[in-house]
């Protein structure tokens, strides 16, 4: 018998996959579904599978013993502060240090312009929370970061993708889309862009276009949200100048220590005009009360006591070697008709398959051949990306990358033979929205 306080729950629902609450979720929860890709990736984490899917930084390259010592020292010497609640805007000393990091990209900001967040993912969530009503438009590159698209979906935003080429976002496409949307009465709340070493496309917005994009958005009254976790991971030359450096009032900038130090600290930040920053702080406090003082002070200690610029150089050299391994393997193994981007930094190559092939359909076969990638559809909100895949070179060692690309090329060749015989490659399975979990970030 069902107890009246049991709200209709049945014991069968406990621990089972039957959802007794299905008719009670808020409408915004409808978009929160895991796809079958997650299940496939549970298999893909087996050691014999080369994962070209994961966006995990190679933190083994950090001096982990040194980090361990500084964490122990932090608790021993400043434990009563480090293990206490902190202020909503984040540790003031860390915010000063963040200003120094951002100066490498031409940003002149003060500690008061910054709010520390739980990774830049939380900043994305909070920005969306304070700006988006259901149906509001967010502009985003096509393709764009799956984690951001998941957040936008959770707040019921309507994402409109803007085309990119190998120089990044196409300004004419941006201007036309804004014009058409505004003319049709849509409320465009912001442009979400990853201008440098984009996830997933690996491309970078060139200097001229940076100015054009800022100008177009300024004229149209569209706020720019610049997400820049990879900006310091360029393989040649000096870091690009951030968009925020040239338009402090029109850009909210998101930064992160996840790729230049370690994602496990979960320390990122947002730089915003003060009115927006005030709202963000209130939204942050309602979400988590106060972020971890402990990890903020640990990152601060690391920046104070360790040669962090040299560590970033180590990461850049390591990732450059892996990028080179991937590009040369693609050149050697991929069949004609496949094309791919050539990233100058960051973690990702974006591949386009020949006509008639579908990357999602290919994934189970690829995993059977012990290689994994992320299908392109995970990076679009509108079903695009069927012929694309994201290949990451950040985590596996160069020889494994080469082997992974060789295996993948074999699978693609097989698909091409099927297409030429039957007129199509494998048919994709149906599933939910492709929202890669954290291991695929
Ligand atoms: N933005 C982009 C473009 C990313 O690639 C990621 C993670 N891969 C994030 C934001 C979130 O990173 P974090 O929360 O670890 O700072």
Automatic annotation (TrEMBL):
InterPro entries referenced in this protein's UniProt entry, alphabetically: Aminotransferase_I/II_large, Class-I_PLP-dep_aminotransf, PyrdxlP-dep_Trfase, PyrdxlP-dep_Trfase_major, PyrdxlP-dep_Trfase_small
Renumbered residue ranges of the record's region Disordered: 422-441
Cofactor names: pyridoxal 5'-phosphate
Pfam families assigned: Aminotran_1_2
Annotated Aminotransferase class I/classII large domain residues: 49-408
Species of provenance: Microbispora amethystogenes
Keywords assigned by UniProt, alphabetized: Aminotransferase, Pyridoxal phosphate, Transferase
Protein name: GntR family transcriptional regulator
